[in-house]
C-alpha cells in the first residue's frame, strides 16, 4: 500500500446513540450535549479534530439530535444580546463552537452499529483517508493522540487505531489487538482484533479506544461485513479483515496511548471526568480543589 500524500482533512463523529445509560437526562437531550464542566461533551471532540487539522467534520446522527446542529450553528439573537451588554467574554465562548470547523450532518437511520455508522459517511468522505472520533472518549488536548495517528497514516498508509494498555481483567470490556512491535515505542503493527474477548483468551492487554484514522478501503469491507456481536455491523470486524490481508487496503497500525483519557460513556466515569477537568481549570480549580478536599475529609 502506498502511503497517502494527501493531507487528511475529514473527521467522522458517530452520534446516533440513544444514551440509555443516562436516562432520564437523555430522554429529550442528546447524550453528546450533556455538559462536562461548562461545555457539552461533543464540543471537546470537535475541538480535538480541529486541533489535529481536520477542518471538515461529519456527524452521523439520528432522531432527536437537532440540538447538536444548533450548538455548532450561529445563534445571532443570543450573540446580539451579549454584544449589546458588552459581554465580550461570553460572546466569544458562544461563537467558538460555530468557528471550529465546517460541520456536516447525515442520519444513520436504523441503528445497525458503529460499522454501519461509519459506512453512512462514505458519500461524504469519498476516496480519501479520514478520522473517526467516538464521543464517549475525551482525550486531553495536552496529549495530541490524533495528530500522532494522522502522522502514522501519512507515513505508512493503511489504517491506524488507538490502543491503550488496560488491566487484563478488564479487557473483556473492549476490542483487543494482537500486535507486534516496530522500531517506535508507541507504534505496533496489528495482526488481529477480537471484540470483547474472554480475559483468558485475549491476545494482549491492548484495548481499542475511540480514535481511528482509516483508509477508505474500509468502506468496501464494511459493505461485505455481516452483523456480528449484538446483531450489529462491527467496525472491529472490518479492521480485522484489513489487518489479516493488507492487500485489501494497507496495513493496520496501532498507536499506544499513554496520556490522559476521560471516559464519559459511563455515569461514574462521567462524574470523575468532570471532577478531574474542573480541578485542572485555572478559573475553577483552586476553589474547587479546596472544597473537594474538605468534602472528602468530612466523608471519611
Description:
- This protein is of the alpha/beta class and 300 residues long.
- The chain folds into two domains: 10-265, Alpha-Beta Complex (Spore Coat Polysaccharide Biosynthesis Protein SpsA, Chain A); 266-300, no CATH class.
- The chain has eleven helices and 13 strands.
- The protein has helices at 41-51, 66-71, 76-85, 88-96, 114-119, 122-125, 145-156, 217-223, 235-244, 267-280, 285-299, and strands at residues 10-14, 35-36, 39-40, 56-61, 102-107, 130-133, 137-139, 159-165, 175-181, 187-195, 206-214, 252-256, 261-263.
- The strands form three sheets. The chain has a nine-stranded mixed β-sheet with strand order 5-4-1-6-11-8-12-10-9. A two-stranded antiparallel ribbon has the order 2-3. Strands 7-13 form a two-stranded antiparallel sheet.
- A hairpin with a 5-residue loop joins strand 9 and strand 10.
- The chain is globular, with a radius of gyration of 20 Å.
- The mean pLDDT is 91.
- Its EC number is 2.7.7.9.
